[in-house]
Write a structure and sequence with these properties.
The protein has 165 residues and is of the alpha+beta class. It has six helices and five strands; from the N terminus they run H-E-E-E-H-H-E-H-H-E-H. The strands form two sheets. The chain has a three-stranded antiparallel beta sheet. Strands 4-5 form a two-stranded parallel sheet.
């Protein structure tokens, strides 16, 4: 069995205050972004799209007002894309609950949560802006409400000026 290292998985890795962000590109598009724990070091971009994505991610991590303009691969089901479109419309510095997003789509909060967890482009599709009615909620379908991904969510919301009370 071959063990893959980060060099074979990602087209670039950008350092972040919470760890790192892995960028995977395919066919001149961003195919996936992945939150990575601190043990992952930076990795120089391997192509022009990865370079552009790395620059924009670094800009956002330094300034929450930075805007993303990247070509994204078409992924997800039609329903997931509807949820992602709704999430993308949430302004920086604001949050919506899973229930609010669900009502706007005539759906269910659990289904919205599942679509958030299936997001291939965190930060670009800001699922961190979706919270539970009674608090922060989970993140990334990892089931660990105190773990790494929830720490990422807390950092991103604070970075964008959201008071977590």
């Amino acid at each position: 069995m071959k063990i893959l290292d980060s060099d074979s998985l990602f087209s670039a890795i950008v350092a972040a205050p919470f760890g790192a962000v892995g960028i995977r590109t395919e066919r001149e598009r961003v195919a996936e972004l992945v939150y990575l724990p601190p043990r992952f070091g930076e990795q120089a971009p391997t192509d022009a799209v990865a370079e552009r994505a790395a620059q924009q991610l670094a800009r956002y991590l330094a300034d929450a007002d930075a805007v993303f303009d990247l070509p994204l691969a078409t992924v997800g089901t039609a329903y997931q894309r509807r949820v992602w479109d709704a999430i993308s419309a949430i302004p920086k510095g604001q949050v919506r609950t899973y229930g609010e997003v669900a009502r706007s789509l005539r759906s269910a909060p659990r289904a919205v949560g599942q679509a958030c967890g299936a997001n291939w482009f965190p930060l670009l599709i800001p699922c961190h802006r979706v919270t539970a009615a009674g608090g922060l909620g989970g993140f990334s379908n990892d089931g660990d409400v105190q773990g790494f991904h929830v720490g990422v969510k807390r950092w991103l919301l604070a970075h964008e000026g959201v008071s977590l009370g």
